[in-house]
Amino acid sequence: MAKGKATVFFCQDCGYESSKWMGQCPGCGGGNTFVEEVIDKSAPAKVRKEAAKAEVVKIADIKTGREERLTTGLKELDRVLGGGIVKGSLVLVGGDPGIGKSTLLLQVCRNLSMQKTDVLYISGEESLQQIKIRAERIGEFGDTLSLLCETNLDTIKEVISRTKPEIVVIDSIQTMYNENITSAPGSVSQVREATGVLMQIAKGLGISIFIVGHVTKEGVVAGPRVLEHMVDTVLYFEGDRHAAYRILRGVKNRFGSTNEIGVFEMCNEGLREVENPSEYMLSGKPEGASGSVVACSMEGTRPILLEIQALVCHSNFGMPRRTAAGTDYNRVNLLMAVLEKRLGLSLSSCDAYVNIAGGIRMNEPAIDLGIVLAIVSSYKDVPIDEKTICFGEVGLSGEVRAVSMTAQRVQEAEKLGFTTCILPEVCKAGLKKNSNINVVGVSNVQDAIRYIL
Ligand code: TYD
Ligand code: MG
């Protein structure tokens, strides 16, 4: 092996580095995630020389202007970014293959090009013709958008420094490679190297860069989790492949709050923004059916109403079947145990299927009360009033506990025409009197069931 080169092992999920192969990663606990790579250990010398010149600065002497933000033309994306694109930021957009990452970023390019912003879209996955075909579905483009099909990092660096666009999109990081690194594109060292280079470009030239990264559960391609700590912002694009809507979730953001979500719908003309997700989630709710109730969950600062469905039926086997789609399976089991113990429902002989309609995933404890009421409604086969909504965390003694942002949730319910809102008794005190919606405070599950059924 050449001088300065060494063999190391990396965890593909978290980037943990080790000199020997291990079955289980000490960093993230993942099994069989280590891959072997050859790295060049001689590089750090240069860095050390530069560090010697560094000067320290007093925090009071640092001048900040108002940070410049560029709007992407998509309100949902702007919100997740914290108000638009920050100059010189590096944003990672991760997600399963085929979820719509390229479509989303091409739409951003389109909007920016219509505002006369210089954008460079670099694709290592598709040919110019393929991008053009996609672009034609999306709509009209301005003439400040340039395309480049390239995977060599040196060439990309040269092109960016020469053309100096304001925004660059790299689709995808797993196809980019540096010739000096022997491992294949998509390996941990290549992906890290590529991100490092892009980071230098972003900070050095003040260019904002979007990086697309595919998330793979298993396989040779390094997951973008390895880069999470290197970039400024991490957004994940998720959704059910079979449902049309997509959720963009902020996981890390140096320039704004995380937990914000953006909701999109995949149409024939690309992604369409869903401004009122609650309305969208509740469309198609059955009327007069038992086992269905509307609950409210917060996603960041946004209340989202969703329909919780439960189907409880007699089990023909000794081991009852239980499933939870869109929410935590263990939580559903726990809530069923609470119902069994505190209310005396004989659920242990029943199969139970709980589903959050629309394919969305919600894990906030505030939907506990909804899950409980849906299960009881199905068990007793009594429908719940359609204009009723509920939220609250359920504890092990069957008590209904406080949740945050009560006022926003009630307001959202009112906006969508609900007439009754069942919420934790302790949350009721802080609410303003409201004539359009009947607010019912409950302190335990029994009270809620008595009121509703
Ligand atoms: P794409 O952006 O290529 O996914 P990614 O870059 O995350 O791998 O999106 C792929 C899917 O989106 C593809 O299955 C087709 C669908 N699609 C539409 O339904 N409508 C459209 O207008 C476009 C462009 C894509
Ligand atoms: Mg793509």
Offer a quick outline of the entry.
The protein is an alpha/beta fold and 453 residues long.
Task: Write a structural description.
This is DNA repair protein RadA. Residues 351-453 are annotated as: Lon-protease-like. Pfam families: AAA_25, ChlI, Zn_ribbon_LapB. By secondary structure, the protein is of the alpha/beta class. The chain has three domains: 1-44, no CATH class; 67-275, P-loop containing nucleotide triphosphate hydrolases (Rossmann fold); 284-452, Ribosomal Protein S5, domain 2. The protein has twelve helices and 23 strands. Strands 8-7-9-10-6-11-12-13-14 form a nine-stranded mixed β-sheet. β13 (261-267) and β14 form a beta hairpin. α5 (153-163) runs parallel beside α6, α8 (329-343) packs across α9 (368-380) and α9 crosses α12. The radius of gyration is 26 Å and the shape is globular. The site of thymidine-5'-diphosphate (TYD) has 14 residues, from α3 and α4. Magnesium ion binds at residues 101-102, 125, 171.
